[in-house]
Amino acid sequence: GSTLEIKDLHVSVEGNEILKGVNLTIKGGEFHAIMGPNGTGKSTLASAIMGHPSYEVTKGSILLDGEEVLDMEVDERARAGLFLAMQYPSEISGVTTSDFLRSSINAIRGEGNEIPLMQFIKEMDEKLEALEIDKSMAQRYLNEGFSGGEKKRNEILQMSLLKPKIAILDEIDSGLDIDALKIVSDAINDMRSEEFGTLIITHYQRLLNYIKPDYVHVMMQGRVVKSGGPELAKRLEEEGYEWLKEELGIKD
Ligand code: ADP
Ligand code: MG
Ligand code: MG
């Protein structure tokens, strides 16, 4: 499996330092969760890993199997095996979901190695069924008029077709009702293998009832301040963040 190593990562947005030295290592076969109060930098971490231009890395490094991700263009990051589900996926006019998925698979596979059309259709149909997505959705324009829940399912559809080495899933649970949450969680659980590692960013512990993380991290004030196992998420769900702030001497 692959290894994503985030080392002493500092990230600024519009001159304000948001991440103040994040350290985190995710390996193939591992499910990590990051929790933390609103505004502590969780999405900033996801954006920086994927190379969003508004997020300036001022210090530190992100290595994928020893290669510096920060030196790669955004599309190179995807080709190297990183996947990011955005908190607010955008609409792309005039492109059907099916076309978008096929071209994103081919962008990763590279010229001369395009996925055969019949194989693509077969794989897509299998995943549509697993995610209980109506087949007609694949022929609709990407994200146009999709509900929040449909967008999330679509992202997981994309991830399961792209088969990334490491996926960063930011608030994949937001906007999902319980049934959809179960379906999406099952699809993520189905990806469990030595070849796949994920960092699941969430606000709520409830997602972690369906996707069992091996490691749970808490981010506060731009740093990972505590790491543990699933029991850490349980405690946060039951008791909130106050005890941890006290333990760490953090004032807000
Ligand atoms: P979280 O995901 O933990 O809720 P974010 O990473 O979204 O937190 O935000 C962390 C901090 O960075 C917040 O204070 C937020 O206002 C700020 N921030 C994040 N992105 C931007 C941006 N694009 N422009 C300005 N400020 C931002
Ligand atoms: Mg937020
Ligand atoms: Mg966020």
TrEMBL record:
Record CDD domains: ABC_FeS_Assembly (cd03217)
**Molecular function terms from GO:** ATP binding; ATP hydrolysis activity
Write down the SUPFAM superfamilies for this protein, in alphabetical order: P-loop containing nucleoside triphosphate hydrolases
Q: Name one Pfam family in it.
A: ABC_tran
Keywords of the record: ATP-binding, Nucleotide-binding
ABC transporter domain segment(s): 4-246
> Which SMART domains does the record match to this protein?
AAA
Output the InterPro entries linked to this UniProt entry. Answer: AAA+_ATPase, ABC_transporter-like_ATP-bd, ABC_transporter-like_CS, FeS-cluster_ATPase_SufC, P-loop_NTPase
Gene3D superfamilies noted in UniProt: P-loop containing nucleotide triphosphate hydrolases (3.40.50.300)
| Record PANTHER family | ABC TRANSPORTER I FAMILY MEMBER 6, CHLOROPLASTIC (PTHR43204:SF1)
| Recorded family membership | Belongs to the ABC transporter superfamily. Ycf16 family.
Q: Please report the name of this protein according to its UniProt entry.
A: Vegetative protein 296
Organism of origin is Cerasibacillus quisquiliarum
Gene symbol here is sufC
